[in-house]
C-alpha cells in the first residue's frame, strides 16, 4: 500500500495488489471533512497503472464536490479496479476488494459504478459493511435512477425559471439524448407536465417505448445535439459538449444527467459566450448519490432523500445567480462553491480538536 498527501488535497491513496485473485485496485480518499468518503467503484481495463491512478484521483475529487453540493454528510472517494468487466470478474476478486475496503476502517464507502453490478456489490458486502447501493436488505436504497431523474427534473424547472422566467414547463420542448434508466424516468416527469419531447437513442426498443408512452418525436443520434428546443438534456454519454457540437447547439439551456458533459472546463466558457445556461452535471444529477447516501449514513428515510433531491432546484439557482453576478461560467462557480463548503467543514473539524 502506498500513501500520499500531495495529490491536490487528497487525504489518502491506497494501492492494493492481491496476488491470489489478481486484484489490482487504487482507492482514493479525497476528503473526509464532511464525512466518510463515498464514491463508486469502477472496473475498467486501464492501459497502465498511471491511467488508473489518475482516474481514481480525478473521480474522488469529483465525488467530494458532488457530495458537498448535494448537502450530504459525506466526503469524496473513488475506487478503480484494473480489470475487464467482461472477462475478469470472479468471486475471489470481489471478496479481495471487499477486504481492501474493510481495511480502510470506514474512511471509504464503496458503491456501484461503471463496469460493476448489484450482484458484484453483494459479493463485496460479504467482506465489508462499508458498501452502499445494495438492492435489498434492511436499509437498502435500491435503484438510484428514479431519484437521479427527479433531481434533473427539478433542475430543469430551476433552469427554465431562471433563464426563461417561466414557473412551469407546459408547452416547452425538451430534447433528451438517451432514454435509458435516467432518461426514461425523466421523460415521464416531463410528459406529465405537458412538455413536448424529442428523444434519441441507439436502442430501438427504448425509442418505441418513448413514442408509445410519451408521444415523443424521434431524431437520429447525430441530430439530437442540434435540434431546436428550450432545453437539451444529455442523459447518455460524457463529453458531448465539445468543439464540434457547440457551434450547432440550438437551445438556451443544457440540463441533463450524464456525467462530465463538458469535454473540458473551457467549454463552460464557450457556453456562457453563446448565452447558453449550463446546469453543472454533478449538481443536477446528484439525486442518485443522495439516495445512496440515505443508506450509507444509516437509517434510510425516503422523505429525507426527497427533500434533498428537491433542494437541487435551490442549489442551481444559487449557482446561476453567483455566476451571473461574477460573470463567470456556472461549472467553475459550482466547483468554487463546493471547495468553500469543504474548506468550511475542514476548519470546523480543526477547531473542534
Ligand atoms: P443507461 O445506460 O441506462 O442509459 C444510457 C442510454 O443512452 C441508453 O439507453 C443508451 O442506449 C443510450 N445511448 C448510448 N449512446 C447513445 C448515443 N450516441 N445517442 C443517444 N443515446 C445513446 O444509463 P443511465 O443509468 O440512464 O445513465 C445515463 C447517464 O447519467 C450516464 O452518463 C450516467 O453516468 C449518468 N448518471 C446516472 C445516474 C443513475 O442514477 N443511473 C446517476 C448519476 C449520473
What does this protein look like?
This protein is an alpha/beta fold. Helix content is 43%, strand content 15%. The chain has two domains: 12-62 and 75-124, Leucine Dehydrogenase, chain A, domain 1 (Rossmann fold), CATH 3.40.50.10860; 145-285 and 315-337, Rossmann fold, CATH 3.40.50.720. The two termini are 28 Å apart. The structure holds nicotinamide-adenine-dinucleotide.
Number of separate helices: 12
Q: Can you list the ligands bound to this structure? A: nicotinamide-adenine-dinucleotide
Q: Please give the share of residues in helix.
A: 40-55%
SSE topology string: EEEEHEHEHHEHEHEEEHEHHHHH
Question: Low-confidence stretches at least 5 residues in length (pLDDT < 50)?
Answer: 1-6
The overall pLDDT, averaged over residues, is 94
Structure classification: alpha/beta
CATH class assignment of the largest domain: Alpha Beta
CATH fourth-tier homologous superfamily of the largest domain: NAD(P)-binding Rossmann-like Domain
User: What is the overall silhouette?
Assistant: globular
User: In this structure, how is the largest beta sheet organized?
Assistant: 6 strands, mixed
Number of strands: 12
Give the arrangement of secondary structure elements.
Blueprint: E1 12-18, E2 23-31, E3 37-38, E4 41-44, H1 49-69, E5 75-82, H2 91-103, E6 108-109, H3 118-124, H4 145-164, E7 173-177, H5 181-192, E8 196-200, H6 204-214, E9 217-218, E10 231-234, E11 253-254, H7 266-273, E12 277-278, H8 281-284, H9 287-296, H10 302-310, H11 312-326, H12 330-352
Parallel strand pairs: 3-5, 3-6, 4-5, 7-8, 7-10, 8-9, 10-11, 11-12
Antiparallel strand pairs: 1-2, 2-5
The structure holds nicotinamide-adenine-dinucleotide.
Nicotinamide-adenine-dinucleotide (NAD) binds at residues 144-145, 148, 177-183, 200-203, 206, 221, 235-237, 257-259, 285, 288.
Amino acid at each position: 500500500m502506498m500513501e500520499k498527501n500531495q495529490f491536490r488535497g487528497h487525504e489518502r491513496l491506497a494501492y492494493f495488489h492481491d496476488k491470489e485473485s489478481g486484484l489490482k485496485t487504487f482507492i482514493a480518499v479525497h476528503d473526509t471533512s464532511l464525512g466518510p468518503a463515498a464514491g463508486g467503484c469502477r472496473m475498467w481495463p486501464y492501459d497502465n497503472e498511471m491511467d488508473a491512478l489518475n482516474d481514481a484521483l480525478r473521480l474522488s475529487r469529483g465525488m467530494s464536490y458532488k457530495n458537498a453540493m448535494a448537502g450530504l454528510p459525506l466526503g469524496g472517494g473513488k475506487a478503480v479496479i484494473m480489470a475487464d468487466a467482461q472477462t475478469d470478474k470472479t468471486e475471489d476478486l470481489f471478496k479481495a476488494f471487499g477486504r481492501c475496503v474493510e481495511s480502510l476502517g470506514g474512511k471509504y464507502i464503496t458503491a456501484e459504478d461503471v463496469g460493476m453490478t448489484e450482484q458484484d456489490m453483494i459479493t463485496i458486502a460479504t467482506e465489508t459493511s462499508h458498501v452502499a447501493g445494495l438492492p435489498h436488505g434492511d436499509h437498502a436504497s435500491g435503484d438510484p435512477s428514479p431519484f437521479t431523474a427527479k433531481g434533473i427534473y427539478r433542475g430543469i424547472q430551476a433552469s427554465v425559471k431562471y433563464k426563461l422566467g417561466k414557473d412551469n414547463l407546459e408547452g416547452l420542448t425538451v430534447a433528451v439524448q438517451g432514454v435509458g434508466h435516467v432518461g426514461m424516468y425523466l421523460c415521464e416527469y416531463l410528459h406529465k407536465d405537458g412538455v413536448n419531447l424529442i428523444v434519441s437513442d441507439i436502442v430501438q426498443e427504448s425509442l418505441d417505448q418513448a413514442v408509445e408512452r410519451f408521444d415523443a418525436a424521434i431524431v437520429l443520434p447525430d441530430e439530437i445535439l442540434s435540434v431546436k428546443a428550450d432545453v437539451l438534456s444529455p442523459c447518455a454519454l460524457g463529453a458531448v459538449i465539445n468543439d464540434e457540437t457547440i457551434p450547432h447547439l440550438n437551445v438556451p439551456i443544457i440540463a441533463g444527467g450524464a456525467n462530465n458533459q463538458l469535454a473540458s472546463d473551457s467549454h463552460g466558457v464557450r457556453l456562457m459566450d453563446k448565452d447558453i445556461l449550463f446546469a453543472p452535471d454533478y449538481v443536477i444529477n446528484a439525486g442518485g448519490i443522495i439516495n445512496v447516501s440515505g443508506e450509507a449514513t444509516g437509517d434510510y428515510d425516503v422523505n429525507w432523500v426527497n427533500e434533498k433531491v428537491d433542494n437541487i432546484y435551490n442549489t442551481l439557482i444559487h449557482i446561476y445567480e453567483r455566476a451571473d453576478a461574477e460573470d463567470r461560467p456556472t461549472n467553475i462557480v459550482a466547483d468554487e462553491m463546493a471547495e468553500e463548503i469543504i474548506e468550511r467543514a475542514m476548519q470546523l473539524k480543526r477547531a473542534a480538536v
